[in-house]
Amino acid sequence: MMNNQQKTDNSLLNYDYTVSCISKNEYILSYKEKYYKIGEFVYQILLEGKKANSLEDLVICLGNNAIITVASLKEIIDTKILPVFKSPETALKEQTGGFWMKRQILSSKNTAVLARPISFLFGSLFYPLFLILLFFNVWLYYKTSDSISNSSISQAYEILAWFVSYLSLFIIMFVHELGHAASAIKSGIKPRSIGLGFYTIMPAMYTDLTDIWRLSSNKKVKINLSGIFIQLIINILIVSIINLTDEDLVQSIASKIYFVNSLLIILNLVPFLKFDGYWILSDFFGIPNLIPQSDKMLMDAVTIKDPFDEEDNIKKTPLKQTVLTIYTVLRVLFIATTIFFVFAFIYSSFLKSIILIKYLPYLKLNFATTIEISKRIATIAVIVLFTRKYKKIFFNIILKKARWYKV
Predict the structure, then answer these.
(1) Whether residue 275 sits in one domain with residue 181
(2) Residue 95 domain-assigned (yes or no)
(3) In sequence order, which residues have a C-beta less than 8 Å from that of residue 239 and are 6 or more positions away?
(4) What is the pLDDT of residues 327-352, one digit of tens each?
(5) Same domain for 37 and 168?
């Protein structure tokens, strides 16, 4: 009786969690609909911890997996595992973060109803079909680029065409997200919802696929490519409309929608932003938290290492280390190029605005002048909103995290 009273309580029994091995050396902890990557030893502790009544029993259950004392096991649980259960918000961030404003527009049930009919597209032949669509789109662009770009309509209709193409963004993005949801259903997980967010004036949609962490890398990459797969099909339909109609306005609208859709495809494939391309690269090579790891590699290269920093416990193969190095170098070049063009655009916009203000008294107030003034006002407004938002990010992330004078 005394022996039972002296046994150490197994605090893991107080939490309703699940653990799974999704591939070799890849383990996932699920708690309160959040997912965490864990190591093999923690996986064994959590797996056996669901059955052991005490830590002494847990040590016995671990058996040959580890030589560990009750005191050491209790320390691991108290310092490494329980903080995760008590702070579930520290889980792997969802792919939907970073919006200025976001709101759910479609529930899990309605998402599944709309996505299930097209889930057949994402079966075993998905990758061959994707490559065929990709090469066909490239061929189609070079074949029809002249007819797509040549459209002669009035300035009023030109503005209308761009406005309609902007509205088409919402439809394209919605169908793109349905592609992700349909592929997820085909892969055996349930999409939770579809939401809408905004970056300044640019709309962006996302699908809550939290359960994707349970899947193999191959299935995750397929789901990440599925939205682009749908957009490649949309491009083919748009080019068909352009070639089947003689109406200049319809051709102009279709051409601009084609341009917008193609631009979105390219943007989604860029791995330096947290869009589809980022997750494709991360899942394909099995490198989680790609940007944070890239940031750490960059900071380690230009600063003196903090002796109190915890060691990176993620084992990297030579291939992963090479991929991460190349990714970091290219990302630095991408950021530098982006900053250059952003500043060039801001400078050019302010210069054009100053010239317009200078010559405004000499201009006739007609439709063209009104449009030009409206464009300048809109551009300056977007620049102000953009810089106000990212000024905070610049000071909070770049300056505070840069340990230039660490000794």
Answers:
(1) yes
(2) no
(3) 140, 144, 148, 258
(4) 999 999 999 998 899 888 888 888 88
(5) no
